Amino acid sequence: MRSANAEAILKRLDWQVVRRLDGMLQGDYRSLFFGHGLDLAEVREYQPHDDVRYMDWNVTARMGEPYVRQYMEDREITAWLLLDLSGSIDFGTALVRKRDLVCDFAAVIARLLTRHGNRVGALLFSGHVDEVVPAKGGQVQALRLIHLLARPDRRSTPGATNLGEVLEQAAKTLRRRSLVFVVSDFISAPGWEQALSRLARRNEVVAVWVRDPREEEIPDIGPVVLEDAETGEQLYVETQDRRFRDRFRALVDERRRHIERTFARHGLDVLALTTEGDMVRDLGRFALLRRQSRQRQGAGYGRAAAGAAL
What we know:
The protein is an alpha/beta fold. The protein has nine helices and ten strands.
């Protein structure tokens, strides 16, 4: 990371990201963090601007006044960060690596959640799960997580990332329904899609897709030896061969479409972060899309309820 001191990193992100997000979202972090259908806490009277999807029509009919269901999400969030620290995450431009994005995003989310009284835990993984950080609250937890990520002696486990195994272990680790951020480039051994489906059944899962545009194309630079960052396997290629570059581009496009289809199939919200992007802008756009999605779904529930009443 660009700084090895946890407090210095947190201070930098407070100025560069958190304060700008505060101004952009005006405190409306529900757009970032709150989803639908966590543990039911109680039923209460309807208040202006409540989400109509949570109307309890049975109680409303009995009481003669509108009532809504209040879920545990309205009180406290337990969030888990599944953080990819594998060899492929070390790829990046001269100024920013994908690893920097993973660490900065984790620090920002931990800071935002813990300062509002919520708890954050993490699974750090490379080839397999390397470390589990139990969910806790408070700024100390945010600093602890940043320290673990910025530790200069941290090394990736050799071998290809087994994201499916990581997701399976996460599903076993989470004792209660949680908000889960899977922060990865999703470069993994095949077969992780079913594990993602099982994790998403009991939790609200957000896919944070970390990318660098430069890894998705091969420039014409003559003969080179490419090395797999995770397995160490090497391959001699002739980049002047246009057919080779076209095949590489086609494989990249097919992989991207496969990942996008997987996310869409399981109804996941996706936050795309790139080494050439602006995290504040990307988070702001993500919050806007989530807010619009909730409003559309709320309107749909309202129309369905009105139709049932008629």
